[in-house]
Amino acid sequence: MRRKLILGVSIALLGGLLLAGCGGSKGDGASGAKEITFWNPFTGADGSNMKKMIDEYNKTNPEFKIKNVSLKETDLYAKIPTVVNSGKNIPDLTIVHAERIKQFKDNGMLKTYDGVLQEFPDIKAENYVAEAWNLGEIDGERYSLPLDIHSWGTYYNKDLLKKYAPDALDDDILTYDEIIAAGEKAKADDVRGIAVTWVKPNYLSLMAQYGGELTSDGTAPTLDITEGKQAFDMWNNMYEKGVTTQDGEDPTQLFLSEKLLFFPEGIWIQNNIKNATFEWGLTNSPQLSNDLSKTINWASSHQFVMFNSKDRSEDKEKGIGNFIDWLRDNSLEWAKAGQNPATLSLLEDSEYMEMPQSLFLKTKEEQETLKIFDYKYNGYVSEYLDAHGFDTIFGKVPVADTMKDMQKEISDKIAKDDSGK
After folding, report:
1. Which residues form a coiled coil (predicted)?
2. What distance in Å separates the CA atoms of residue 223 and residue 323, rounded to the nearest whole number?
3. How far is it, in rounded angstroms, from Cα 328 to Cα 126?
4. Residue 109 phi, psi (nearest 5)
5. In this predicted model, what pLDDT tens digit does every residue of 67-96 receive, in sequence order?
6. How many C-alpha atoms does 90 have within 13 Å on its Cβ side?
7. d(Cα 304, Cα 323) in Å, to the nearest integer?
8. How far apart are CA 73 and CA 19, in angstroms?
9. Is the pLDDT of residue 19 over 80?
10. How far is CA 11 from the centre of its chain?
11. φ/ψ bin of 135: left (φ > 0), alpha (ψ from -120 to 50), beta (otherwise)
């Protein structure tokens, strides 16, 4: 009898726990708390800034608090298809990069914000940087909302600038001609003119300045093109002239040791150089022309998306809208991470306007220099450039071979994707 009684109590307790667990998975947490599970790729220094914002939001006692889940970027993108296809443990809200959205949408993985936005009239185009806002609308529906627009620029040593290129930045635009002229002078003192850094933004920005496009129809790649060859030729020629950093050199360390004049990098790199012992500045990425209307700065954007889920209630979606709406006027902490929040309300904040990266948003003309390469297969382009770009610039592989191979490799990957559908 005693064994039967214990067994009956155990089954009852187990049943109660299972019911509680099921309620938590469909609703708002096993504890009964109302939560929005928020996946994001902020595991570095910017992760602490995001956590501070979430903590501040949660202190406002919203109906649905934000549960922060930071994952490594590679892990995040690996997990998303798995959980969405399984229909289980799908996050309520997720940050993804702008370049991923078209593919997620075409794969039928995203839910639109159209219903949510009816409740939040201030989440609208007029209140955001256009380049970050516009890409979220596809086929007349809103699939994402922007957190930021992070871009590529050029850091420079102010003392070295005075010595080797005193007039180059009078117009806040640095041209390749000015870089080469300054680099020729600087190399006599064993100072590098410009760093060879992340190839993708350097290449894409210049390729677009020459008039090139990754695709003409949104799908088929146009990579083996004259404009692309010209972009790689420019960087290879600067390397051959001896005005760039050399293969194997660390650009950040050269910059910090005052052996590098121009340092192309993302606005987010400021944490790495903030303790420099000299004065530095930030300007636009290198350009062919000093005409601001022709200036192109590579950019990307962290965007909020909702992956399809049967368990996300309308009330929870409203809670998501409330969080994103709150961020419009509470994003200074994100700017402190070296980012540029996409909300235009920050232009009224004097602290933000003193930050170096505010250069890219201060005027509408400067905002229009930002270009997000949101080609559906941008990920394949990125992978190729990351794998082969440095060898091309440093003359290990002929430029013509790189262009031909990039076109073939990415075309083959797209064909394989299509055949697997």
Report:
1. none
2. 40
3. 12
4. -100, -10
5. 999 999 999 999 999 999 999 999 999 999
6. 20
7. 11
8. 34
9. no
10. 50
11. alpha
Residue from 297, 381, 262, 307 nearest 80 by CA: 307
3-class secondary structure per residue, 36-50: EEEEECCCCHHHHHH
Distance CA 89, CA 86 (A): 8
Q: Around Cβ 176, how many Cβ atoms within 10 Å?
A: 18
Contact between 201 and 284 under an 8 Å Cβ cutoff? The reply is no
The pLDDT assigned to 418 comes to: 82
Q: Is the pLDDT of residue 138 over 90?
A: yes
Tokens coding 14? 């187990």
Residues 186-223: pLDDT tens digits? 999 999 999 999 999 999 999 999 999 999 999 999 99
Tell me, rounded to whole angstroms, the distance of Cα 145 from its chain centroid.
Answer: 13
Give dist(CA 80, CA 307) in Å, integer. 9
CA gap 320, 262 in Å, rounded: 42
Backbone angles phi, psi at 300, to 5 degrees: -140, 180
Per DSSP, the three-state class of 306 is strand
Q: Is the pLDDT of residue 17 over 90?
A: no
Whether pLDDT at 378 is above 60 = yes
Could you tell me the domains of the chain? 31-149+301-362 (3.40.190.10), 153-299+377-419 (3.40.190.10)
CB 144 within 8 A of CB 128: no
d(CA 96, CA 104): 10
Phi, psi of 264 (to 5 degrees): -65, 125
Q: What is the pLDDT of residue 11?
A: 40
Whats the size of the chain, residue-wise?
421
d(CA 99, CA 104): 10
Residue with tokens 């209140």: 127
End-to-end CA distance of the chain: 59
